Amino acid sequence: MCRMKKREMRLKLINLMICVFLIASNLGLTVALTNNSSQNKDNCEFPAIFNFGDSNSDTGGLTALYGQALPPNGQTFFGKPAGRFCDGRLVIDFLAESLGLPYLSAYLNSIGSNFSHGANFATAGSTIRPQNTTISQSGYSPISLDIQFAEYSKFYKESQVVRKQGGVFEELLPKEDYFTRAIYTFDIGQNDITAGYKLNLTTEQVKASIPDIISQFAKVVRGVYAQGGRSFWIHNTGPLGCLPYMLDHFLLTAAQVDEYGCASPLNEVSQYYNSQLKDIVTQLRMDLPSASITFVDIYSIKLKLITQAKKYGFEKPLVACCGIGGKYNFNNTMRCGSTEIVDGKEILVAKSCDNPSKRIIWDGIHYTEAANKWIVDQIMKDSSYANPSIPLEMACQNFVKGFQGFIVMASSGRASSSSNLNGGVTWFRAMNCNCEPPRVADIRFSNSIANPRRPYYKCRVCEFFMWVSEDQISSDIGGRQGSMAEVGQVHALRAEFTEFMHKTDEFADFVYMVVKLAVVMYLVLLIVALK
After folding, report:
1. Which of 215, 269, 467, 471 has the most CB within a 10 Å radius?
2. Distance CA 78, CA 296 (A)
3. Which H helix or E strand runs over 185?
4. Residue 341: predicted pLDDT
5. Which of 231, 102, 112 is nearest to 178 (CA)?
6. CATH number, domain containing residue 98
7. Cis amide bond preceding 142, omega within 30
8. C-alpha–C-alpha distance, residues 485 and 448, integer Å
9. Annotated active-site residue in 192, 270, 297, 366
10. CA-CA distance, 112 to 90, in Å (whole number)?
């Protein structure tokens, strides 16, 4: 009888333990799902794109001015010329697709355009600086970046007036709040560099012009910000020394050609431009505290594709698919789509290669649709190409990454009181809640405290606390203790905190501990019950 009762008690105990285990596990799962759901809510859901740029992102601006691009442009995707200097879609088209938005209509194209989800101000040949020569003389568009901004300002101000008329205007123009919630994309600067070379400037002279180019770029970003723009997605320029139209233009010595056949001096200038652009982006983050600015390293992505073409299924990386003649299948006087009159008939002579999907360069200047898709795939798969390292759909988040300044810790080890830091305590917040806690090696210190000020950045979503001891640099870095102080606007520390942020989610941590405890209790009691 006693044995029967003991057996029944053991069974009840086991059943109870199983119930506790299942409840704890389900609770943990619920919290995990809730966290995942909250992370999905961090996606920005951009309702519109406003793009500024050159031919790399022009969807019909230049052709609206000067006539449609010639066949075989557009053949791969659109089946006909579609305002793009490409066999199909551009990077901006794939970015729009990834955000679930329609392809952008060119602002200059008044026929059949739909601006309900943004507008494209880019035109082929555009530069950041105004050109002092006409398009017929230099080959560059008169629609420089300052003109594109003027177009945007006019569109911003007048679209809502027209939209209020209702009907078709309401359907074809963006809602007022879209201008603040939109993402503003920039892909421009290539022509400023190449224009200098086409005017026979030396490399040093081209480099000397870059600070002014960058300054004028920043002026436009500030202008968009002043009119309500908050989310910016900025591409640097690609490896210009690998493009056939530049390789064909120069007489290069063997020492000026790298192992892949690219012109080293041109790529060095591209990198110099990109470093200056990145620096101004850092400055803009400080000057525009409510802006979310993402800097995308297009140069590295394109160089990776060109130098490892075979690995990624491409061939002849420096040879144009559409063109005629020469080492690079490029002739500046007979570009892609050029024709000749033979026996009274117009014959296409600068034609497409047999398989554009295997080629990187389309017409000697621009990339193929296949290459553009590959480039966007890299951006989407590997967020390390972006600074801060975030996917496109989260580019509205305001991050600290890229900020330069001092971080000062109380020498006692725990900076828990603002009085220890002259009132300059800053509590940082992080968006990415799954990152590892900070590593001490990533933090450097200054022993001085001067001019404490409030933080430029008030990042969103989840708080992060840490503590560090100056006397014990190898000390334990908790994910939740202490604070950081920003003082001055100085250069001793390049603080890129986004990579090291950690979410403080006390409830989730508690549930996680409960689950662990439940598992341990279950195993212990099971052993006892079976004895």
Report:
1. 269
2. 28
3. strand 183-187
4. 93
5. 231
6. 3.40.50
7. no
8. 12
9. 366
10. 20
The answer to whether 56 and 91 are in contact (CB under 8 A) is: yes
Number of domains, the chain: 1
DSSP 204: H
Dihedral of alpha carbons 315, 319, 320, 323, sign: negative
Spell out a b/e string for 15-53, using b for 16 or more CB atoms within 10 Å of the CB, else e: eebeebbeebeebbeebeeebeeebeebebebbbbbbbb
Q: What is the DSSP letter of 100?
A: T
Is 66 part of a structural domain of the chain?
yes
Distance CA 231, CA 290 (A): 9
- Mean pLDDT, all residues of the chain: 78
The DSSP output letter for 438 is P
Residue 241 lies in a domain: yes
Task: Say whether 471 is catalytic.
Answer: no
Indicate whether 472 belongs to any domain.
no
Would residue 389 be called left, alpha or beta, if left means φ above 0 and alpha means ψ between -120 and 50 degrees?
beta
Q: Which residues pair with 452 in a beta bridge?
A: 487
d(CA 94, CA 100): 10
- Which residue range(s) make up the domain with 211? 49-307+369-394
**Encoding tokens for residue 143?**
């629609």
Out of 87, 248, 363, 505, which one is annotated catalytic? Answer: 363
Is there a catalytic annotation at residue 366?
yes
What is the C-alpha separation between 86 and 90, in angstroms, rounded?
7
> Does residue 312 fall inside a structural domain?
no
Single-letter residue type at 477: I
Residue 417, number of CB atoms within 10 A of its CB: 11
The active-site residue out of 55, 116, 270, 292 is 55
Task: For residues 476-504, give the mean pLDDT.
Answer: 30
pLDDT in tens, 194-205: 988 988 899 999
Q: In this structure, are residues 414 and 480 in contact, taking their beta carbons and an 8 Å threshold?
A: no
Query: What is 225-260 written as a DSSP string?
Result: HHTT--EEEEE----GGG-HHHHTT----GGGB-TT
- pTM for the full model? 0.73
Q: Is the pLDDT of residue 419 over 70?
A: no
